[in-house]
Amino acid sequence: MKQEILHKASRATSGFAFGLLAFTSVGREGLETALFTVALSFQSSEFLTILGLVVAIALCYLIYRIGYRLNYRVFFRVMGILLIFFAAGLLSNSIGEFHELGWLPFGEQIVWNASHLLSQETEAGQLLHGLIGYADAPDMLQLGAYLAFLGVVGGFFLWMTRPTPPSPARTIEASSKAQPAR
């Protein structure tokens, strides 16, 4: 994959265009991160905001220090799974908000009430609510959408990122490279 990217980059007609693409991609991600950080800081407590910043700085440091030894296939698969849980939580939260507004007048039956175990009003409850869509009293539609999203999108993601067995040609080629020439 690296060789393919290097080959395509060397064939690029303009180094400036290639650099501009990299600059805008990184800049867009930075702006997006800043916007989400500001939005979350207005919604959560100061403790959670500071905790999030400390964790982000620690992750940046770790990636900087051990990034060259990182197995990127595993890293991006784990990050993809985490993002799927985040997206399922956003979907569940939006359905809850639509119920509160009265825009979804069906599926409002409460499935369970776990507020005595972990209330959404506690720090841990707010953290889980913001990250994975935890609700101490989810309704039928929220739970169904959450599980359906995880099943469909998560299943598709796992299927698309499954390890592929090596082809027989690659196995023969790799074994011939490992054998010394006689």
From TrEMBL:
Q: Which GO terms describe its cellular component?
A: high-affinity iron permease complex
Q: What GO molecular-function term can you cite, just one?
A: ferrous iron transmembrane transporter activity
Q: What are the protein's UniProt keywords?
A: Membrane, Transmembrane, Transmembrane helix
Subcellular localization, per the record?
A: Membrane
Membrane topology label: Multi-pass membrane protein
Bilayer-spanning residue ranges: 47-67, 74-95, 143-160
- InterPro entries linked to this entry: FTR1/Fip1/EfeU
Q: What is its main location?
A: membrane
* Transmembrane among keywords: yes
The answer to keyword Transmembrane helix applying to this record is yes
- The organism's superkingdom is given as Bacteria
Name the family.
Answer: Belongs to the oxidase-dependent Fe transporter (OFeT) (TC 9.A.10.1) family.
The name on file for this protein is: Iron permease FTR1
Q: Which organism is it from?
A: Dictyobacter alpinus
